[in-house]
Amino acid sequence: MATATEQWVLVEMVQALYEAPAYHLILEGILILWIIRLLFSKTYKLQERSDLTVKEKEELIEEWQPEPLVPPVPKDHPALNYNIVSGPPSHKIVVNGKECINFASFNFLGLLDNPRVKAAALASLKKYGVGTCGPRGFYGTFDVHLDLEDRLAKFMKTEEAIIYSYGFATIASAIPAYSKRGDIVFVDRAACFAIQKGLQASRSDIKLFKHNDMADLERLLKEQEIEDQKNPRKARVTRRFIVVEGLYMNTGTICPLPELVKLKYKYKARIFLEESLSFGVLGEHGGGVTEHYGINIDDIDLISANMENALASIGGFCCGRSFVIDHQRLSGQGYCFSASLPPLLAAAAIEALNIMEENPGIFAVLKEKCRQIHKALQGISGLKVVGESLSPAFHLQLEESTGSREQDVRLLQEIVDQCMNRSIALTQARYLEKEEKCLPPPRFFIKCFHFS
Amino acid sequence: MREVDLKWARRSPGIVEINVVQRSSAEQTQGKEPKQNGRTHFYDKLIVESFEEAPLHVMVFTYMGYGIGTLFGYLRDFMRNWGIEKCNAAVERKEQRDFVPLYQDFENFYTRNLYMRIRDNWNRPICSAPGALFDVMERVSDDYNWTFRFTGRVIKDVINMGSYNFLGLAAKYDESMRTIKDVLEVYGTGVASTRHEMGTLDKHKELEDLVAKFLNVEAAMVFGMGFATNSMNIPALVGKGCLILSDELNHTSLVLGARLSGATIRIFKHNNTQSLEKLLRDAVIYGQPRTRRAWKKILILVEGVYSMEGSIVHLPQIIALKKKYKAYLYIDEAHSIGAVGPTGRGVTEFFGLDPHEVDVLMGTFTKSFGAAGGYIAGRKDLVDYLRVHSHSAVYASSMSPPIAEQIIRSLKHLMGMDGTTQGLQRVRQLAKNTRYFRQRLQEMGFIIYGNENSPVVPLLLYMPGKVAAFARHMLEKKIGVVVVGFPATPLAEARARFCVSAAHTREMLDTVLEALDEMGDLLQLKYSRHKKSARPELYDETSFELED
Questions:
Q1: What ipTM was assigned to the predicted interfaces of this complex?
Q2: Aminotransferase class I/classII large domain: from which residue to which, for each copy (chain B) (predicted)?
Q3: Which of A2, A149, B57, B271 is a good FRET partner for A295, with 20 to 30 A between their CA atoms?
Q4: In 3-state terms, what secondary structure has residue A296?
Q5: Contact state of B185 with A430 under an 8 Å Cβ cutoff
Q6: Model pTM?
Q7: CATH of B175-415, one of 3.40.50.2300, 3.90.740.10, 3.40.640.10, 3.40.50.1950
Q8: Burial degree of B105 (CB within 10 A; 0-12, 13-18, 19+)
Q9: What confidence tens digit (pLDDT) does each residue in B486-522 have?
């Protein structure tokens, strides 16, 4: 029965073939031939060049000449002839064999050669040796680290603090831990290089606002709000951050924190505050810019600072609420994948904190000295002071530039050399000219300090 | 060293094992033979590496374990959301409840539900120097690892198999460290300035000269943090329009440095020279994608010893490739400097190659020298360029003086400049300890990854439950081990990682090995299919046949 139906179907087909019009058959024939051609023709990728022979490939490999690994550097570049410091970099510093007064180290509270700090570091050296031989997760957590984190949290009156072993890596690891691709960060134009690197690593959208200009920031926030209304689903998952510094390293000005907090609640963005220069400097007890303005510390989501300025140690820390800080213990790259801070440096930082807590008068003395120096330097012809009178790290800029950056740099270097001859150690502010987003003009970088 | 007959590897068809035994001689590398000091060099040591795969049932149970954990995680999240279970995690402030949430729920799923159960095995605080024996502070948790409290007791004299203390130089203070005390008293602890401004001390200059001498290169530069050495100097060397070829399993700092540089990154399979060659050929022949312009430069990023695998880079082949295709080579010797090589000078010495053939030698001082910080060494023009253009030299503070003194002391010790041969003895002791430890573990039947000369020994555990049980039991036996799971390793290959040290005595290693033997039987960890019998004369036989 099956074969009969098959045969019948076949006969029907053949009949249909005879009865079909000619054009139909020709069209179908052409179609079938085209399909066969396509099936058997060679495929070619649009990307690759067609068919280089092996000989041509070898020739290309022979001919290719890469650039040299590093371009040559001029021999008289100042960075190749560093100022060699022998002896402690305290307020009297021996540079290139000559003793000078030091206006070039970030030794604000003068704790670099404090005997108590050195004794604490020595005690720690005797007990723990030097290195920690491991990251925090793998037996690199010492009780000294936990102590230091506790003390820092208490000092800043926050819930928790986390320590990094290098100041630069602190903010550069903290920002990418929270802000990812697709999030929006509003950052000041004068932000320091470490913040720029952190933002680059985070791959978020960066929006720069004019330095300390709250109106500009509000404009950007408003624009973002309008964007959000167009796409509310995306807006619900896009995090917003404002990154500012307490005391800006590049301009010596203080950020207007009360207005920032108002903007934070109005536009629902979180604030990350970088307090490297203001920790241990501003505020009655050295608590930084939040104490200076009297703002509730919980209003700031994350405070990050490095311990290399006021605390005269090495490393950095972040403090804030546990909800925010605990996340960095698993996702801060500089914390999880790097060895922990050597215990002697942590002990030195603890002792420095002790000194800061016992003598809250040093902050007032430091402020007074800064004011004096600012006033004294105001009247110099040809140079203007950039920075507030409260700031211990400020700049002296040429009032009129000679026109070319190199000439300015050379002129400033001459002045530095002359001062060095008269036993004053100054330095120019150093920048990587090709890497900075907003390159400041050449100028001196002066740091005041307190010494007992 | 002797040659192993390859026949037995193919005799058992079901096993997929990569047992690389190769004769790596100068003739095999393309091009001319490298000459060392005028003599033709002939490196004929065998490279013995193994990365055995686990039996199928183990993988099945591993994935099942994760599956069950995930299901319970969903259940717990559900209960926490509905308030049936108390939520112990920190929460957002009341005033900020209507902000966009800081963490997405699913980002932290693994942390909340799987990691939190076993997190007492990490971040264990210690209160002594991280030598061969150390003291661990006892801590307990009353609420299933959400918070810890210290009981006040200290577990003394725990054998340290977790810290990177390869040469045993991390120890409590003794009289040989008095130079560090002097430096501390004169210089203080901090520097408070960058290298370009006022932060270059004479100690740094002394250290850099010593490092260059140790590594037998022209110049070196030191930095304050090992992680930052990579992330701040790779962007200074390469930029847009350059190509970076990076190994699959490179460390986070290398990946971060490569990303920050802005160059194009292509990944080749771990330690696989064929994969690297293919990428190099394609790069040189076809140039940049779409524009077809030639690449400005090609930089190959590899590590000396990979810390999670224990494998040593196949350096002779990579150098041959680099010469043929005119690429530049950057080696991160964080785990291999001081630890491999007859005098501890790293992988170049291990393979008997000239260090000038590697363009950029990078390393850290944390692991073998018991300090902190990193260095980059190479030709003088490279180091001069980095002195001017490195991000760290301009913006980050320099190394602290007592740390620099510790490194100077360790280097002098290793080079024999302090008048003793103890440094060399430490390197030899480390090599002996490594071989002994690895050999015994393989005899017992554990799956060990990596090269037989690498002091980092990963022992595979696979299942998440065993990871926690292993670490906890070992601490009860007073042995401190490091266990690593996802995301530092692939999901199904959780492992325990031992770091052999020159400070470990034979008795300590035997104690550890006995404990491991017990653990292996208790937790069923002996997955290897090549159980060799424990006859010590096995390696001296000229021919052997596996009975199985």
A1: 0.86
A2: 156-516
A3: A149
A4: coil
A5: no
A6: 0.87
A7: 3.40.640.10
A8: exposed
A9: 878 888 889 999 999 999 999 999 999 999 999 999 9
